Amino acid sequence: MKLKYTLMVWLITAFCGSRLMGQSLGIIQGTITTGTQGARGVHVTVPGKGRGTVTDDQGKYTLANVPYGTHTLVISAVGFKTVRQPVDVNSAVITLDVFLEEDMSTLDEVVITGTMKEVSKLESSIPVEVYTPTLFKKNPTPNIFESLNIINGVQPQLNCNVCNTGDIHINGLEGPYTMVLIDGMPIVSSLSTVYGLAGIPNSMVRRIEVVKGPASTLYGSEAVGGLINIITKDPASASRVQLDVFSTSVGELNADATFSFKAGKATSLVGINHFRYDERRDINDDNFTDVTLQQRISVFNKWSFATPTGKNSSLAWRFFYEDRWGGELQYERQHRGTNIYYGESIYTTRWELIGSHALPGREAFTVDYSYNHHHQDSYYGTVKFLADQQVVFTQLRWNKVTGVHDLLAGIPLRYTYYDDSTPGTAHTDGSNRSINTVLPGIFVQDEIKFSRQFTILAGLRYDHHNVHGSIVTPRLSFKLSPDNVSVIRLTGGSGYRVVNLFTEDHAALTGSRQVIIRHALQPEQSWNGNLNYTRNVTFARGFLTLDASLFYTYFSNKIVGDFLTDADAIIYDNLDGHAVSKGITFNADASFTNSLKIMLGATFMDVYQQNRVNGREERQPQLHAPRISGTGTISYTLPSGLWSVDLTGRANGPMHLPVQPNDYRPEMSPFYALLNLQVTRTIETKGAARWEIYGGVKNLLNYKPGDPLMRPFDPFDKNVAVDNPNGYTFDTAYNYAPMQGAKGFLGVRWTL
Fold first, then answer.
1. Same domain, yes or no: 223 and 332
2. Which comes out higher in pLDDT, residue 429 or 383?
3. Whole-prediction pTM value?
4. CA distance 584 to 627
5. Mean pLDDT value of segment 568-576
6. CA 9 – CA 5 distance, rounded (Å)
């Protein structure tokens, strides 16, 4: 009886206690502000408690029926950093006001590339895609070239399985049609497009802006298919110290170190990157290294100066050195240039200088300038290739707003010196002569804002090439904003590209083929149309950004390389016909109040050239241009904010590949996907220091292409007449996916 009585009292007490606790409910209320105003449409939630609301027009919110105790309030909104604020609910009403800080990693930040002026992404008349290190940290890589692999419509493409030359394709167009800028300056071009991209470390990047479609009206030659503007960190806003080191299970080691400091009225940022990989791995047993062995170092230093007029000026320099080689496993340094063991060895030394200075006075004049010197000392088997390139660029810009007109004008001048040891710079008398290109120009642009909803942008550029003469490139864009959440842009324009021999024949050098140029190559011309739609959607548990584009580009005078007629040669000529790149791209970026973020992208395209052969039209598809491709990122942060999981990936549909006549290898690649998984643990310490430990697996599905090399057992073609009825020769250009397979990685970041 006593036991039953005790149990009954315990049950009654527990029941009454639970009823009393159930009545201990409070209200959390307050105001969310950004700057001096309340913020409308901000999500305020208590994770795990089923409590959530959205702020009103004055930024006020109320959360009712919140149980007593300590909770974490999560506040999130488009364009601002998510705040996790602990709150102790111990009375009927708790007032908590929160200030939101702008998040530079969001899609609607200030962009420059589309119009060469700072403007909100949604306000830009030209569609610009923005990506920051926040995205690239979800799949850590040692350089920008590899990081771009998770951007929809942008495809870093390796063109050689031995030396790993690479370029960047936008919407299926080859690397020479993509212009790569650093802080708006034409730093990466011609010679440096092959190996220089791998030397740009992520540690120096503040954000990357991508414009798809011709941008020659503002940026001149090479911006035919699109451009990528790598904007470096601002010393004034950079972390005082940041260290990032990671290693992979195959032996790669990457180390980044940056630190900033003040010197009087100036601020400075110093960044050092070192990458090392020296493991001779041969997964597919063809006696060749799967990827190149590399030793690479990059030093970057940027200064920012505040002028008496309040306008900022900057000056930056970078040094880059790389030693890379790939080839037979028996290859050693002493075999360089011999026919004992096949190897492709490249030494690269590069200097860069970038500056931008706002001139004093009432008018908005700015002087931009850059200089780079790129030297390459290389052997491709027994073929020696020495090359030297210097590019000097300067530009005077003027910007003025008057009434509804936002005027921009510029006078650019670009000088290029190029010399190498190939027939490309050889004279008819047998001597070697450098190529000197002088390209002055002038451009004007007027952005007319008729109303908040409707804007027209018109631009025109004139360049005079010392060989090709006058070149004119116009651009016209219409922007319609029917409401505060959607934008429609229609853009049309012309692009051009002058002949840059090295970008035409680098594939030949990496594949031991002879270069044949049929006629004097003429500059290419393109016309492009792009229809873009962007919309921001806010709902109860998050927000969504949708972006879709239709694109069509028509090329005349396209420079094409014939890889098929002669297995030992690449024949270059202007296309007798035309080429087309057309398609549609979709992007969706969703963020939920439970800290789940999803970014998905897909591209459907058709890239081909229509050629006249013996009076007959022939359609030839573009190599390395999948008709269907997609990218995806799924990220989740646990409510504590200390653990996060990232799944990133890319999928490519079948693409045409460079095959030899009667090749036994498929001329189309299969559908394949590359997935990467990462887990990150954040450790907050006292003061301003922060630790992150991260690790995971790259190429989670362990996908590897088959038969990347033709006749790897006879790389010097010594025995092509023996048991070789199809006349195959050694070839390295058949590539469409990484060769390493699955690999683990582990890293640590420390930020002060």
1. no
2. 383
3. 0.81
4. 10
5. 74
6. 6
